[in-house]
Amino acid sequence: MEEQIYVYRDWKEKHNHGTPLLPVSLHHTSVPSNKETILYTHWHPECEFLIVLEGKAVFTIEDKKYHLKKSDGLFIPPKCLHSATHLDYSECKFFAVVFDHEFLISSNNTFLFNKYINPIIVSGSAYSLHFSCENSWQKDVHDLIKAIGFHFDHTMETTALSIKGKLLECWQIMYNHHFVSINNNSAQKKKQERLKSVFDYINEHYRFDISLADLSKLLSISEGQFCKIFKDVTGHTPFHYITRLRILKSCELLLSTDKKITEIADLTGFNNISYFNRTFKEFMNCSPNSYRKRSKS
Is 73 helix (H, G, I), strand (E, B) or coil? Predict the structure, then answer.
């Protein structure tokens, strides 16, 4: 199957969308009329907006099907299995912007994250939306996403703030007219509120060793229960969340100071330089030294 080239066994897409510091990517896709599959079956942890520029297609998100024509758009929540096929075998073109929710609102900002982001992460496909220019507020979303497409040929460094601003505006419109109308699970809200002390603790102690026992004690629950709640709310395991935060903090120090890499590793919670280098490359696709040189060149 062609999909196996692009996805893992669990259908997660192999392609990385941006970097941890700029987790956003723009894509223009053109599929000829003689190819039935427009978009192979896959999922990714990021959110996605797309707009059909030419042709017609049937997009599937989990168990829902959406018939899109030229100028129609689609919002695909994170971790949702999705694909697309031709509707009339005409050439199909579409533009997509794929972005991590952290690009919009950090999970460290617990109030905004819990209010605007987490329900979409938790409930997934319930928040998917087929939007068109025939509806006033949906046209506003369409126009903002289409405007992001004009940044395709520019570097992310010169357009990131503009893209983020447009996505935030889209998100607010979607929240006001679509997200807010979907009933949220009250039990999930309680989980979000419960984790505030955990996020505060991690932000204050990420430089030091943090164990599952330390975090689960904050909520007076077992480590197993804690891991389940934490992943429900953040979409990450506690270990991945903490490691990601440490790498992002190390990136800040690499760019804003002349400290030695060994010192930066120690300041961000890595007491082993080999482990720091290996982990940094895993997240950033380059070494800390290369990252510093490339960013300052």
Answer: strand
pLDDT band at 157 (very low <50, low <70, confident <90, very high): confident
> In this structure, is the dihedral angle defined by the CA atoms of residues 126, 132, 137 and 143, taken in order, positive or negative?
positive
Q: Cα–Cα distance between 41 and 37 in angstroms, integer?
A: 9
In 146-283, beta strands by DSSP E? none
pTM above 0.85, yes or no: no
Residue 296 has pLDDT above 70, yes or no: no
Look up tokens 């197993």; give the residue: 224
- Indicate left, alpha or beta for 48 from its phi (over 0: left) and psi (-120 to 50: alpha): beta
Cα–Cα distances in angstroms (integers) from residue 82 to residues 25, 57, 93, 152, in the given order: 18, 13, 17, 23
Alpha-carbon distance of 230 to 201, in angstroms, equals 14
DSSP 137-172: HHHHHHHHHHHHHTTTTS-HHHHHHHHHHHHHHHHH
Terminal-residue alpha carbon distance, the chain: 42
Is residue 243 within 8 Å of residue 279, measured between CB atoms?
yes
- The predicted pLDDT at position 156 comes to 83
Instruction: Single out the residue of 62, 37, 67, 42 nearest to residue 52, CA to CA.
Output: 67
Residues 292 and 155: their CA atoms lie apart, in Å, by 18
Listed in sequence order, the residues at least 6 apart from 154 whose beta carbon sits closer than 8 Å to its beta carbon are: none
Predicted local confidence at residue 1, as pLDDT: 42
User: Residues 208-244, buried b or exposed e (16+ Cβ, 10 A)?
Assistant: eebebeebbebbeeeeeebbebbebbbbeebeebbbb
Spatial contact of 283 and 20, defined as CB atoms under 8 Å apart: yes
- Give the chain's radius of gyration (CA, Å): 20
Per the CB < 8 A criterion, the answer to whether 285 and 19 are in contact is: yes
